[in-house]
C-alpha cells in the first residue's frame, strides 16, 4: 500500500518537474524553478498526434514554439492568448510565425530569456550586483576623500599641534599660499595636495561648500572617535592585567575649572612592560575626599574598567586626596581593601 505522505511527495515532485509550460502561468517562481521551467520543455514523441485542422498534416519547428497540453481546452491566444492551429498561414514571409517572431513583445521575451541565463551562468552581472558594485564604488570614493583629512588630524594630535588658526572656515583654496594664518590643519592639507595626494586634491576641487569635511565640527568628531577607540584599547589592556594602580591629581585648568587628571599604572600582559597611561580629564564640583573618590570610581566603571582589580593608589600629599580618615584614598580602601596608598 502507498501512504498518503508518499502520494503527496510524488505529487510535489511531479509539480516541481512539470514540463507543461501553462502550469507556471500566473505563478511566482524562484530562480531555480525558472531554470527548470525553461530547460525542461515538453518535446513530443515522433508519433505524437498534434491538434490539426484541414486535410494537410503540416508540422513546423521553432525554438520558441510550444504545445500546451494543460491549456489545450482553454480559449488561449495565437501563441499567447489564443490557440493557433491555422497551419496554412503559418509559414512564408507573411506567415504568422514570421510575424510573431518580429513582434516587440516576442523580442522582449527572448531578450529576458537570454539575459536570465547569461546572469545564471555568470556571463553578465545581475542588476542587483551592478547596483551593489556601484554602491561599493561610491563608499570607497567617499573613504578616499575623508582618509587624508583623518590622517592630518591624527598627525596634529600625536604631536600636540593646534589644528585651528584665526580663519579655519570656508572653502580651501589649494593654490593659495599666502602668508595669512588659517591654521596648521588647512596648511597641512595644502601640503598633502602639493606632495601629490590626488584623492584629496580631487575632493577639495569638486566638493560642495557644505561637504568639505574640514570644519571644526568634523575635526572634533574625528578627535572624539579617536578618543573612544584609544580608550577601548587601553581598557582592554588594563582589564587583561588583572591588577592596576590609580594615579590621579586635582588641578585647575586655564579657565579656572577644577578637574582630575586620571591615569592608570599597570603591566601590559602581552608585552610584559610596565605602563602608565592617561585616561581622561574629569571635571569636579565637590572637592571633598569622598566626592573625589566617588568621581574616580564612577569614571573608571563608566569606561568599563573592572574596579575589583585595584591594588594601589597614588596621589600627591594634599589632605583631600591622602587623608587617612576622610581622604580619597581612605574612602576607596573602604570599598577595595587591596587598594594600598
From TrEMBL:
Q: Name one Pfam family in it.
A: DUF4371
**Where is the DUF4371 domain positioned along the sequence?**
158-327
- What is this protein's record name? Zinc finger MYM-type protein 1-like
Q: Which organism is it from?
A: Aphis craccivora
**So which residues are the signal peptide here?**
none
